[in-house]
Amino acid sequence: MPKQFHTLFSRNQAHMGWIYRYTLLRFLTLLVIAAVSVILTHAQTSDAGRKIDVGIIVTPTQDEARTILKQLNSGADFSVLAKEKSIDATASDGGYMGNLDPTQLRIEVRDALHGHKAGELTDIVHLPSGYAILKVLPAAPPTSDLNPKRISSLLASGAIRYGTMVAGLSEANAVLAQYPKPDGWDRNLQQVCEIRKNSLANAKDAMQEAMAPNSATGARLSPIEQIQGHSLLGELYDYSGEMEKAVREWKAAYDLAKTVEPGFLPDIEEALGASYLHMSEMENNVYRGSRDLDIFPPLDPKASYEKKDESKLAIEYFQKYLELRPGDLEVLWLMNLAYMTLGEYPDGVPVAYRIPAADFKSRQNIGRFKDVAAAVGLNVLRDAGGLIVDDFDNDGLLDVVVSSQNVCDPIHFFHNNGDGTFSDRTAQAGLENQLGALNIIQADYNNDGCMDILMLRGGWEFPQRKSLLRNNCDGTFTDVTEASGLMASVTATQAAAWADIDNDGYLDLFIANENSPAQLFHNKGDGTFEEIGHAAHIDQTAFSKGAVSADYDGDGLPDFYVTNQNGVNFLYHNNGNLTFTEVGRQAGVQAPAYSFAAWFFDYDNDGWPDLFVNTFMTSMDETLKTYVGGSHNQETLKLYRNKHDGTFEDVTAQVGLDKVFMAMGSNFGDIDNDGYLDIYLGSGNPSQTALLPHVLLRNNEGKSFDDITQSSGTGELHKGHGIAFADLSRRGVEDIVAQIGGAIPADKHAMRVFENPGTTNDWLNVRLVGVKSNREALGAQIHVTVQDANQPPRSMYRTVGQSSSFGANPMEQHIGLGPNASTVTLDIWWPASNTRQHFTNVAKNQFIEIKEFAPSYTPLKRQPFHLRESAPVAASTSQSSK
Amino acid sequence: MRNKLLSGVLILASAHLWAFAQHSAQGILLEVNPAEHRIVVSCDAIPGYMEAMTMPFTVHGSEDLKTFAPGATVRFNMVATKKEAYAEHLQVVHVTNFESEPMEAGRLTLLHKTLDPAAAAKAVAVGNPVPDFALTDQTQQITHLAQFKGKVVALTFTYSRCPNPSYCFRLSNNLSQLERRFHAQAGRNLILITIVIDPDQDRGKALERYAGTWKADPATWHFLTGTIKDVQNVAELFGMNFWSGEGFLTHSFHTVVIDRDGKLAANLEGNQFSAGQLGDMVEMVLNRPQPAASTAGMPQ
Question: What ipTM was predicted for this assembly?
Answer without folding.
Answer: 0.89
